[in-house]
Amino acid sequence: MKKNMHVAAYDLRREEWINQTIDVAAARQASYLGVHGKVLDETKESLLVQTSNGRKRVLKQGVVFKIHDTLIKGNDLRKRPEERIGMKIKTINPQKRQEPKR
């Protein structure tokens, strides 16, 4: 099954990241820049990534990840995977406007 390359970020935040290929697009810590590989494990605060040079643990805080051509802030992912997958994310749908309550 081929994934859509332009999936909205709010969908990706709720997906399982293990076995997905990611890139670190931006990071406060210079050693994280350019990390590319497959996610092996995920905790509340970090991802364990299998790179061509071995395994690398990348903290989520202060990092921007690229997955499926979408950039996602690591700070938005700082939950346990099971909590993140089930979380509700507010989205704005302009077609479904609610009338003000009286």
The major β-sheet equals: 6 strands, antiparallel
Task: Give the overall pLDDT as a whole number.
Answer: 78
Shape: globular
Structural class: mainly beta
Q: Radius of gyration from the CA trace?
A: 16 Å
CATH evolutionary superfamily: Ribonuclease P/MRP, subunit p29
Structure commentary:
The chain is mostly beta strands. The chain has a single domain (9-86), classed as Roll (SH3 type barrels). Helices cover 10% and strands 34% of the residues. The chain is built from two helices and six strands. The protein has helices spanning 9-12, 81-86, and strands at 21-27, 36-42, 46-51, 54-59, 63-67, 70-73. The chain has a six-stranded antiparallel beta sheet with strand order 4-3-2-1-5-6, with no helix packed on it. The longest helix is centred in the C-terminal third of the chain and has 6 residues, at 81-86. It is globular, with a radius of gyration of 16 Å. Residues 1-10 and 90-97 have low confidence and may be disordered.
List the helices and strands and how they pair.
Elements: H1 9-12, E1 21-27, E2 36-42, E3 46-51, E4 54-59, E5 63-67, E6 70-73, H2 81-86
Antiparallel strand pairs: 1-2, 1-5, 2-3, 3-4, 5-6
Can you give me a brief rundown of this structure?
This protein has 102 residues and is mainly β.
